[in-house]
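Example S7 (structure tokens).
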């Protein structure tokens, strides 16, 4: 980059307009290269996260993601808000991060109870109408 810049600045054949255009072109090239590197890093990071999540959750990954989806459906607000949550997870890549998946999976275990028995203590024994009126006497 330095050599390209010096080549433009030291080129006596370029008038000021051509020199300015060459500098703008050089700048655009450097911005494009930086953007490509950032994009490549982002995709590599997301691929790494997906691999880590698959390794951690194994065959339970899809059911876990299903429970997270139920969690969002139940507690994510209205339809527009739920869509915004899902879009944010997709856009930022947070939905691929195993730490985020783990966090929401743990919350879903506590809050999404479909398919699990609900705990509690059984009610006392049921008394027959005769027992209520006459007690336990025969």
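Recovered sequence:
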């Amino acid at each position: 980059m330095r050599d390209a810049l010096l080549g433009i600045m030291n080129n006596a054949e370029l008038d000021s307009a051509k020199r300015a255009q060459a500098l703008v072109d050089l700048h655009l090239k450097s911005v494009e290269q930086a953007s490509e590197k950032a994009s490549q890093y982002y995709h590599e990071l997301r691929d790494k996260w997906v691999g880590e999540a698959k390794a951690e959750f194994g065959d339970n990954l899809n059911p876990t993601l299903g429970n997270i989806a139920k969690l969002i459906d139940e507690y994510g607000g209205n339809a527009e808000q739920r869509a915004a949550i899902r879009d944010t997870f997709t856009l930022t890549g947070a939905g691929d991060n195993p730490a985020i998946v783990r966090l929401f999976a743990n919350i879903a275990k506590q809050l999404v109870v479909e398919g699990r028995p609900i705990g509690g203590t059984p009610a006392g024994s049921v008394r027959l109408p005769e027992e209520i009126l006459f007690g336990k006497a025969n």
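Notes on this example. The chain has one domain: 2-114.
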